[in-house]
Amino acid sequence: MLIRLILLLTIVPIAELIVLLQVHHAVAEAFGTGVGLLVTVGSIAATGIAGAALARQQGLGVLRDLQQRLGRGEIPGQTITDGVLILIGAALLLTPGFLTDILGFSLLIPMSRAVWRRVLKQRFQRMVQSGNANVIFVTPTSSSTSEPAAGEPREPDIVGPAGNIPPQSSTGQDHS
To answer: Which residue ranges are recorded for the region named Disordered (predicted)?
Structure first.
């Protein structure tokens, strides 16, 4: 996992730099060096501004949907997934480069985000089926404390050191 992360953090910036240089070179050949630089830097700024506006719009829409679903007592699984994908898309648009911008926009646009959601769902299902993922089920009666749910047997509370305690009868009398 660490090696993949290191490769990702190394290869993506190099690929972005190569694409930026190619775009600059192509525009500079067609219109001149000054225009090439202006178009390259301007396009990076424009995608950042457009991406921020789209991320805000989509994020607010997901937030409204989340509130509505929670208000109806529904589990907002798809809405939460959309929120995470929008957050990742917005973060990708903050990084300068055309490749990350394309990926970021694909996570912000609802139709392509649905494709990503479906792909991720299938991948997680395969991971669970192959035993490569841990699944935690949470039910409405679950709690973060060690208290059992209603109707479940409760362990006795133990306060202080335990010693030899004589057995008691059902009347509460010692048999010693």
So the answer is: 139-176
